[in-house]
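Late entry, written up from scratch paper. The run itself happened at the end of the previous shift, but nothing got recorded in the book at the time, so transcribing now.
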Amino acid sequence: MKKAGSYFRWSYRSSVVAYLALIAVMSGLSAIILGSLINRSTILAEMTQSQYEMAITVQQLESETDLTTEEVLRILERSNLHTQFVPNGSEEADMIRALMGGSGIAIVGAMHGLPITCVLTSSGLVYITAADQYNLYSSILTRAMSVSVFCIAAFLLASLWGSKRISHPITELTEATRAISRGDFSVRVPENERGEVGDLMRSFNSMTEELERTSYVQKDFISSVSHEFKTPIASIKGYARLLSMPGLSDEDREEYVHMIASESDRLARLSNTMLRLTALEQQGKSVTRDVFRLDEQVRQVIVRMQTAWQQKEIHWDLELKEVTVTSDSALLEQVWTNLIQNAIKFSGPEATIHIRVWEEKARGLRSFQYRAAMFEIRDEGVGMSEEEVRHIFERFYQADTSRSSEGVGLGLSLVRRILDMVGAHIDVSSVPGEGSVFRVSIPSEARGGNEHG
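Output as recorded:
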């Protein structure tokens, strides 16, 4: 069952207009009531003053001229005042004269809420009242309503303009949100507003920029992954078909099986590296803090890779000084594994790989001195050009295309991500045909954000 309110869809601007209109009407009614009270008090004060002035004039004319009281009243007749003469000798005149005690002018009462002024003369007494109390109240109400209607009209016009001004940024945000829901991450909203609305619009633009970058990275990542998976899968498929051919020699069969196993290993490495890289990106800036010997960790990595470097009869030139660091041990172990593995892979038979570990003082911002652990590995392999060095930390980039089957192009991307997380820095220098040098600088105290134990 639908709710009653579901049949009506109020826009943000309609709601603002409705609320402001209600406030305008309530303000108008309040203005009418308040204005009536204020105008009534003002008019009554003016009327009392006018009656008093007329009473003074009546007394003066009667005392200074030979005119009778009735003749004076005819001369002073006004449209907004009404007079009534009561001659001496009447019971009413004698009673009022006794109550006033000889005072010449007094407010003796009220009629329909209006003042009544009484004037004592030599021939009697004069009552001065408003000419028509109904016209008086009509005048009061007319004044209050005219002012209130004008105020309500002005307020409604201001409400329409204000509602449009207030709702315009919300309308822009709504349209932009709809565009994003359709997959258009290039949409932006103007950042010309102030206050909370301006902060909201700037945050919205920042969000869309991040979504646009994420969308581009995802598309590029999917495209690259598809391409990287395509090559080994095609090789496995081709060698599998060759295995099904009749009349194969044992030597050919063994070669095809070896190639299928090699390509399968490559797929496994690609999948595992992608999972590690994705996990690190989801992990954000959170790293652990371990106190460990960097030189011992590097020795352990070299020992674990003994099978790989013994096959090439690699020689080692090691200068591993005792260095203790506080950082993420597990993450840095992956860094040394990737760098040493690359050095072995791109070195020729009986080549020498040089590794140094030491500690030195480094200069930070505002000449701040801190101690940094240094790791340097130098190989005598194929080397790289300046163009290749600029791209080696990009995903799936492989400088040596002739050896692309040996890697997946994600190792150095993983290295860069880890070093960024722990606050470390890496420099690369290389000469084609002479080898490459990778140097890593790690603060003795990790500077990665949000570190926790």
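The CA atoms of residues 305 and 341 lie 8 Å apart.
(Scratch paper discarded after transcription.)
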